[in-house]
Design goal:
The structure is a single chain. The chain is mostly beta strands. The protein contains 1 helix and 26 strands. The protein has a domain of 143 residues.
């Protein structure tokens, strides 16, 4: 088992990864760096942004990171309530179950066939609210159809003794499109609702329309049906599902300590966002963004009175947030209630302090590798999944 040791986190950026790959039992002590040139905040002096300065909220936490395994194109993490198992989805189609005590790993059988190309494949996994009684889990993935790739959500029972899915059924379908990108397909279960992020599929306009369920955050029942009382219901098409609209590629969703929903969202060239969700609101894409198109063409920035909700925080240049975790544990008690985003192109972890509907980015760590997923363990430790082939699974806890 490879261990990475931290000193106190008294600076903005801290390199966690080594260029070489030591043996699994070798301890690596990492020295903190003195600055972070890629932080976005108006008082940082390094780039544009609305997320605030980088030094005032930096913490002094002595901690360590331990490598717990490697996965191929890992996409999502989910600790199974009442067990010692962690589920890890791999975009190529596999669903792995890791025993966090022994390190044994089992590939789950009877998973759905996936279309794996571009950004498509096996995506998110969440345990149902009744998991401890009946083993219910929800999966999101992409399949190929005559009309193009299509995101799908299914529900079934996971038998942890046999390592297989049982009674699995589809409960929701994304509007198909020709693109192999911007599926999103992150899920969050809160009380009676299943929330789903549905990207614009690189088609732009659907994010401002209700005839599809693209470019939106959806609120469904646990059975995958439109939740009663959704704010756009009755406007035709898939409007009955839509909770908020005007989203590009929201790849993270979580609730804060007060129960409010937040999503992290990949912008175009620059303009990655953290959004506080209010039902019935429009978050602007593609009519407003703090970034520009990849060809350099301008996009109107968010302005007061434009009819769109501006992001609570944004990043220019991009960090490409592939996930969102709002920390609710006590192990890192200084961080309880803070949001954590893992950057893909940014290769970093960013900590954001939340206060009502306000957000301020206060600290980041340079990881040296693309970060695909973050998940809080039952004991309050933070688990980190790197992107790509043989991406590392890391456990982060106080020393």
């Amino acid at each position: 088992m490879k261990k990475v040791l931290f000193g106190p986190l008294v600076v903005v950026s801290l390199v966690l990864a080594s260029c070489s790959e030591p043996s699994m039992n070798e301890s690596i002590e990492i020295a903190p760096t003195s600055s972070s040139s890629s932080f976005a905040g108006p008082s940082s002096g390094s780039s544009e942004g609305s997320s605030g300065g980088s030094s005032g909220g930096s913490s002094e936490v002595s901690s360590e990171v331990v490598e717990r395994g490697r996965f191929n194109d890992g996409w999502a993490l989910e600790f199974l309530p009442g067990t010692d198992f962690l589920l890890v989805s791999e975009r190529g189609g596999a669903l792995q179950m890791l025993d966090v005590n022994s390190g044994d790993k089992v590939e789950i059988e009877n998973t759905p066939a996936v279309y794996s190309n571009g950004q498509a494949g096996m995506h998110d996994i969440v345990a149902g609210p009744t998991f401890e009684n009946d083993g219910t889990v929800y999966l999101s993935w992409v399949r190929e159809t005559a009309d193009g790739p299509q995101g799908v959500i299914g529900r079934g029972q996971l038998n942890t003794e046999t390592g297989s899915l049982e009674g699995f059924e589809e409960i929701w379908q994304q509007t198909p499109s020709s693109s192999d990108g911007h599926f999103s397909l992150r899920m969050h279960i809160d009380d009676d609702y299943l929330y789903v992020t549905s990207g614009d599929r690189q088609a732009f306009d659907p994010a401002q329309e209700t005839d599809t369920n693209l470019g939106a955050v959806l609120r469904l029942t646990h059975d995958g049906q439109p939740a009663p009382g959704n704010p756009f219901a009755g406007q035709g098409g898939r409007s009955d599902e839509i909770y908020t609209m005007g989203h590009r590629n929201p790849l993270g969703i979580d609730t804060d300590l007060g129960g409010d929903l937040w999503v992290s969202e990949m912008g175009p060239k620059g303009g990655d966002e953290l959004n506080h969700l209010v039902p019935g609101e429009n978050y602007g894409w593609p009519e407003a963004s703090m970034g520009v198109h990849y060809d350099g063409a301008d996009i109107p920035h968010h302005q007061e009175g434009d009819g769109f909700v501006p992001p609570a925080a944004y990043w220019v240049p991009s960090i490409s947030p592939g996930n969102l975790m709002i920390y609710k544990g006590q192990l890192f008690d200084e961080w309880t209630g803070d949001a954590f985003l893992g950057g893909l192109s940014g290769k970093k972890i960013v900590r954001v302090e939340l206060n009502g509907d306000q957000a301020q980015s206060v600290e980041e760590w340079d990881m040296g590798n693309r970060i695909r997923a973050l998940e809080e363990a039952p004991d309050g430790s933070i688990w980190i999944l790197e992107d790509g082939q043989r991406g590392r699974l890391l456990e982060w806890r106080p020393e």
